[in-house]
Amino acid sequence: MQPRISMITLGVSDLAASVRFYEQGLGLPRRESPPEVAFFTLDGSWLGLYGREALAEDVGVPDQGAGFPGFTLAHNVESEAAVDAVMAQAAAAGATLVKPAQKVFWGGYAGYFADPDGYLWEVAHNPLFWVGPPDAG
Q1: Would you say 80 and 109 are in contact if contact means Cβ atoms under 8 Å apart?
Q2: pLDDT digits (tens, 9 = 90+) for 26-59
Q3: Which of 9, 10, 80, 114 is close enough to 48 for a disulfide, judged by CB 3.0 to 4.6 Å?
Q4: Is 131 within the bounds of a domain?
Q5: Do 83 and 123 fall within a single domain?
Q6: Alpha carbon 15 to chain centroid distance?
C-alpha cells in the first residue's frame, strides 16, 4: 500500500447544506459529480460528501450513534494568524467553534471547529513541522 490517503468521504445528514458549507463557506473547489454526491479537490486528495444513510448502507453497517467519532481532520497552516483566519472563516460559514484557537502543549497554536454534521476539524500551526502544499518545498 502506498503511504497516502486518496479520499476522505463524510456521511452527511443534509448534502445541500454541507455542499454550501464546504464550497461557499470554506471555499473548497468542487469537482463535477452526480447529484447524490459531492467531491472537492484538496492538495493531493479529495473530500467526498455523501448521504449518511447511503454511505452506511454502502459500507454495510448500521447508521446509528453520535458523539465523538474517534478521529479528527486537520488543516495545517503557516502561522497563528492563518489559524485565526481559517477559524473565523469556518465560523462565518456556520461551523460550531468547539475549542478556540490557542497555544497548545506541543508548542504550536490550534483550535477546533465542527462542520454542520459535527465532524471535527483541527486548524493548527506547528512552528516545528509546517507542511505546506506539495510544491512548497
Answers
A1: yes
A2: 999 999 988 999 999 998 889 999 998 888 887 7
A3: 9
A4: yes
A5: yes
A6: 15
Rounded Cα distance between 128 and 62, Å, is: 41
pTM greater than 0.85: no
Terminal-to-terminal C-alpha distance of the chain: 24
Q: What is the DSSP letter of 33?
A: -
- Spatial CA neighbour of 90 closest among 105, 80, 100: 100
CA 70/CA 67 separation, integer angstroms: 9
Kindly report the number of other CB atoms within 10 A of residue 41's CB atom: 12
For residues 53 and 76, membership in a common domain is answered with no
C-alpha cell at 2: 502506498
Residue 66 lies in a domain: no
Residue 68 to residue 82: CA distance in whole angstroms: 26
Instruction: Please give the grid coordinates belonging to residue 21.
Output: 458549507
Q: For residue 66, is pLDDT > 70?
A: no
